[in-house]
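Q: I'm teaching a short session on how sequence maps to structure, and I want students to see two examples side by side rather than one. Could you give me a first protein with its sequence written out and its structure tokens following it? Keep the formatting plain so it prints cleanly on a handout.
A: Of course. Example one:
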Amino acid sequence: MPSSAAMPMPVGRSRLLRRAVPVFGTLAVAVIGLIAFSGSGAAVEILVDDERHEVRLSDGTVADALVVADVELGPEDLVTPGPDTVVEEELQVVVTRAITVDIVVDDRAPITLTAPVASVGGAMSVADLRHLRASGAVISPTWRSPLSDGDIVTVRRPAEVVLEADGESRTLVSLAAAVDDLLRLHDVELGPDDLVSPPPTAGLEADRPIVVQRVRFEAGSEEVVLAHDEIRRETDELQRGRTRVAQEGADGVRLDRYRTRFVDGDPTGREILSREVVSEPVERIVLVGTAPPPPPSTPPTTAGGSTSPSAPTSAPDTTSSGVPAPDDPVWDRLAECESNGNWQMNSGNGFYGGLQFMLETWRDVGGQGMPHEASREEQIRRARLLLEPDAWWATFSHQFPACSRLLGLR
């Protein structure tokens, strides 16, 4: 007769399958196999890997029963009761396999745990994180959920953050995972161009406020003046020193359409959308004389053949000092010759006004500003200072050489 410690023979196996999860000493098991042995001894039930094994031993320990049932243990597996426990009738042995799971708290680096745990709560206890449940943290999967090898447990603790939006600053305590989650929870709607810092997909950080800036655009338009150019063309149809305006200039107009960007009500930039020229500028064309003046006329002679003293053919009215009066027509005749009668002419060649003053001469006689910007009367008043009381026609010849000869003032 064989010894009671010898390997017993199997007498039957059930094929009913149902999943079970072991939890330290209590196990709901789907019976997928029953191993019974003949002979005397204590019946021991072993629950492992969702299977049930039954062996009989007349004596020995839990470790012996595991050997008989051909159950191999890993270094981290848990046996309840312990392997040194002496077997007795109707003893139930539970083997909890060690699994490896990752616990991620607030999106930080995962905590990798390898232990004989069967549920989320067990894993949190082994990792010394059980206190997070009392702090209001959200755990996924739930605290009582079973775990398998390779599972990931995520934990999110409430964060206190500052939200600045629409001119208001609020301190919020939230379990939101990201910025956009918090904004949705607190009914902060974002427009298509609004700015959010940090970005909506970023996680919440207690020391970094969330700032929402409202962005809008306004359309507008404005007219821009297109300044006209001045072109000077030489012509031999005018004597040197004379000019004539052949075409008056005119500025053009351009219509610019744009949109202005506002951030929280403050303009931050303008974008040009289109430019349309409404009217083109017209160039001002000035003709500049290049023809030499005509030769001087021969003075008349007396009966004896001698020339008469040089004198103007038509002397202007003069004051008692011999200088033409301010209202003497000679000034308009001179202006007609010098500037076509344009007392505001700027010829562009260093001569200004109706009498074509040089700027140095104008300043020498006490003129202020630019000659062509002064009135006709002021220009005449300054010109009279150039004339010597005792020989005004000689002074005309010096100051207005070409025109004084054409007008017979020499």
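Q: Perfect. Now a second example for contrast.
A: Example two:
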Amino acid sequence: MRIALALLPVLLFIGLLQLMDSFKLVRLRSVLQSIAIGGVAALLAAFLNRALLDGLGLDLRTYSRYVAPVLEELMKAAWVILAIRRQRVGFLVDAAILGFAVGAGFALVENIDYLRQLPSSGWSLWFARGCGTAILHGATTATVAVLAKNAYDRRPGILAFLPGLLVAVAIHSLFNHFVMPPLLSALILLATLPPAFVFVFDRSEKTTRAWLGSEFDGEMAMLHRIVSGEVAGTRTGAYLEGLKEHFPGEVVADMLCLLQIHIELSLRAKGILMARQAGIDLTIGEDGVANVKELAYLEGQIGRTGLLAMKPILSLGSRELWKIRMLQDTATP
């Protein structure tokens, strides 16, 4: 019973979050990887906590209220920050799932250590830790992920991660002040977290559906013009023609090929997501794998300066880059 109370609630919550993800934005492999990374973060945090507690000369209560929350939230958020910066997170849903998974891994390792140290403790302690502290670790890291993803999409940069970190540290510190009895804190978390996550998921689902429908007709029309050779009569064609004054003709030709492949991959990514929502698990296919490889080759041929010159006609926002990452992951067994 103690083991179940300490470990199962946070795992069940992760399972619930994945069930709510109708577009299956996060693969099980990524969830397990995030749980493992959270566990490693817990081991490192435990070592650093002991070292800092001895080095700073603070009493345990003061340290747990003001120092431990900062250290632990930074350790957990590191993986989330890296994933967002590397365009591995496309929507608020996958941000919430990955963030909660990291926090869950942290909490699992922490609770296993407590089980080892306190083998005969009563069930109330493990209810408070399994449904309180463990859920808190997942919720605070998910909060960092959601707020950071939202801010990073608007203005990329390291400062986009600061508000989420401050909120997470504040919640963690407040929890460690034990303003309320541990059992009551656990019950409040269980009562407030599910509605909050339902709100986030509902908002993200609407955003995802709007994104799937947006620019679909425009992308299809542009792809038809490129394939049929009619792109020269468009504003995109005129822009590419103007680039011949600054780049060799073969580079401009590569730019047109790159634009075509980007559109094809964008349409393919949207098709895969719509199929997932319908319960069909599609793969990228051999031609899609070839497109991903050719995309990387063309980017190397065009170079950074050429890609910057293509910005007016080639969307390279976070979500567009995420689509490419998703297709690359789909191509990986």
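Q: What should students look for in example two?
A: Point them to this: Residues 2-207 form one domain. Also worth mentioning: The mean pLDDT is 87.
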